Batch of 4 targets.
Target 1
Amino acid sequence: LPALRGIAAGSAQRRDLARLRAALVLAVGAALLLAGLGRSDPRLAAPMVLVGLALALPPLRRLLPAGTLRAAPGLPAGIATMGLLNLAFFGIDAFVPLALIEVRDRSISLVGLALTATTITWTAGSWLQARFSPRSSRRVLVRLGLGSLALGSLLTAGLLLPWSPVGLTPLARAVAGLGMGLAFSTLSLLVLETAPAGKEGAASSSLQLVNVLGSGLGAGAGGALVGLLAAGTAGDPDAAGLRQALLIQDGAMIAVLVLALLVAGRLPARPPRAGVSDSEGRSEAASVAGE
């Protein structure tokens, strides 16, 4: 508390009610989109999805920094990569219990081990990021994290196959969690570093927005897809329909990670420094590399 009293006050800002309205419209649009995807009757599903998209996209453009939806270099690319990261991770992680229990006929204990392994290595990845970020390229750290997450996701998908060693699921999720810790923490740092002075709060809110949308769409749209693809397979002793649906979902999320790796190429390698010209920055970077 004494330390908090010593922090200088920020500049006063007018409350932007238009952004509040945009956020409410976005919430309604996203809800309609997810509800529509979950409908089995296309006569209801199609209008709900179309109206949801029409409502959600304009406010999403307003609430995110300009260029985010096309992954413009710098801050927009960082926020776009974070959204793709959350979409892919939660689009697989949310279905690990379903895969282990219903498809591979394993106990809840193995599910607990897999989820715990993810949590532990996510923490480890965050710790590694804190250790290496002062002297490492942001872009390289993010790509390492995305690559580890893609490998863990590929291993997770492979464990759906009946002949695969399902006991390795905690290891697969540990690899994914390590990548998530590296990429998530580095992107959070990068976004705050590249935010314009005085706009760090707006950048942070954009980051939280894509976090929530990514995880919500990964689990929500993924659940709708799995439900539709696996429809009519109840009572299947081999769970073949559910296995196929989960493999398609996992494959789609791995494709999202490939896209995220491409978008990550537009991230800055190092944070910009105020008052340092490009030539000075290159000279300093070369000096650091030489050391």
Target 2
Amino acid sequence: MKGSETIDGGALARRLGWFSLGLGMAHLIAGRQVGRAMGIEARSGLLRAYGLREIATGVGILSRGAPAPWIWGRLAGDAMDIATLVPALARGNPGRG
């Protein structure tokens, strides 16, 4: 972006919606590979479920209604994602790096 250009809230919400759709598809289609890369392959089913949640919030954000509740839902989902990833940071996890 150039110096004084700004993104309005609607444009930012749309970008977040499209990002959610893409991330959700990646988790849904390649849940096992994503899990393996993170050292939590045993949780690939959970990662796929998180992908469905990402897709749902992306669709909600991009719908004609108010995106704010969907954005808050996505934020709550991100907190769940972080809680899932914390065990992957354990020193004994071979996929930690």
Target 3
Amino acid sequence: MPELSRFYGIVILMRYGDHAPPHFHARYGGSEISVAIDPFEVLAGRLPPRARGLVFQWVQMYKTELLQAWSRIEAAQPPGTIPPLE
């Protein structure tokens, strides 16, 4: 599963051949969530509140880049990387 970004111990990933809607996975420690990009919503899983808030902040900054990464991954191309939250 390609890694798009990493910040504050949170890893953002997308899977090749994954189902619609366009989404990504965020891992932190032993927790994981799946997050739809547009409209933005948690599809499954849980993260600690602080980690979830950081992911939400990051998505707001990089929504366009996430949708572009989804398009590339659907075409079986590397999704590229997205800057971390600083």
Target 4
Amino acid sequence: MTPGRLRATPAFDALSVLAALAPLTWRARLGTAVLSAAYRPPALAAKQAAVIDVISGGRLILGVGAGSDRAEHAAYGIPFGTRRERTAGLERLVATVRALGEHPRGATVPGLLEHAPSMPPPPQRPHPPLWVAAHGPRLLDLAGREADG
């Protein structure tokens, strides 16, 4: 779902669509604007992004956000945490993407990953560009410190 869309309007999962488009295109950059950190465990989202980057030959841009669509969370049974919880989820996702990209043979993020591999590594080193949707002070700080856009 997309904010403002009718439930009957067709919508596709962003990462699935990018995986399908990647081998059919050869020049266009591919990306998400924005992937909610709440919808996938951080390691799964990071691995999916790395695989799409491999399939596309290094053309992925990973736009991520904390998730703000209460109705979409409810429709799919995803808990809509507090703003602080959603922000923490985005911070975990960013840390995981960065760690797996920087240490593809075995990344560790305390409380998240323990010697987790992500092979093959993404062609864009150390990871696909991370764009962070940010609206409040904590997310703006995260974007300024950790994001590429």
